[in-house]
Amino acid sequence: GAIREALAGGLPAYAECGGLMYLCRAIRWRGERREMVGLVPAEAVMCERPQGRGYVRLAETRAHPWPGSAPTGGEIAAHEFHYSRLEGLPAEGLRYAYEVRRGQGIDGRRDGLVVGNTLACYSHLRDVAAHRWTSRFLDFVRAVRARRGRPAPAHDEPAEAAPAAARSLKP
Average pLDDT of 33-52? Predict the structure, then answer.
C-alpha cells in the first residue's frame, strides 16, 4: 500500500506501541489474522496478559536514526504497556535504536526497530528537558528532506505546502 511504499522509499516516521504493531506484516488475535502495513518483518500477536508493563530505561545504540537525544548519562526514561509480542523477526540483520536496560521492549534486550528512516518501538518516550527527542526527530526529518533536494519546511508550515504524496497519507 501507499504507506509501506512511502516508508520504504525513505519517508521518516516514528511509531510507538500500536504504531509498531500497525507497521508489522499482520496482527493476530484469538485465531484471526489481519494484514497490516508490512514494513516491520514480524507479526504482532495479542496475548491475554501484559507482555511489557511499567517504566523502562533505554540506552541509544549507534543504529539510532537521529542520535544524540539521550540525556547526559545515556539513559532514557520511558514507559511501556503492551499486550502483544512480535513473532517471526529474523534472528540477524535487524537494527535497533535502543538497548533495554530495564523493561521488555521488543525482545527483552532491544527496542526501537530501525527500518530505513523509520523507528518503531514499544516504549513510549517522553519529551522532557532531559530528553528533547521530538526536536531531534524534526531535525532528522528536515535533513532527510534536504538530502532529497526539497526545501526543509519550518515546523509551522501549513499542510498545503506538503508534497502531494505526503498529503495523500493524511486521514
Answer: 97
